[in-house]
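Bug #77: duplicate submission created two jobs. Keeping one. Sequence:
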Amino acid sequence: MKKSEIKTTIRQIVREEVAMAIHEVITELKQPPQVMTAVTGEIRKTKPKKKVVEKKDYTSNSVLNDVLNETAQSEEWKTMGGGKFDSSKMNELVGGQYGEMMNNSSTNTDGSLARQMGMNPEDPSADFLKKDYRAVMKAIDKKKGI
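Kept job's structure:
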């Protein structure tokens, strides 16, 4: 067999396997969850309880509005990360990165940040990435009285 024929055959086999796996997952998702009772040992099919929530108009875009309403109805986002996120957990969320950024003693004059961001450090538009803004930030803090 030629190399191209082998590639085509492999692609066809992979497509078939993926299609079968997707079909199995879809049929599992369509079936209601099964619960085994501890006393009798029998399996009962339970119907998921649907929470009735009034749809709100967040935006004039109907697709975006549907997604936002779906998100509002699900409760998962409220406890992502093991608990409710509010301003008291802001330090956990950005603490490490922000602390490293503020305590970084390098002046970044070598253009490493520009390279990290996929820019050419020699390009004049990347000059703002080479500057040390600590003095500016201290002046702002001083003006705010911090």
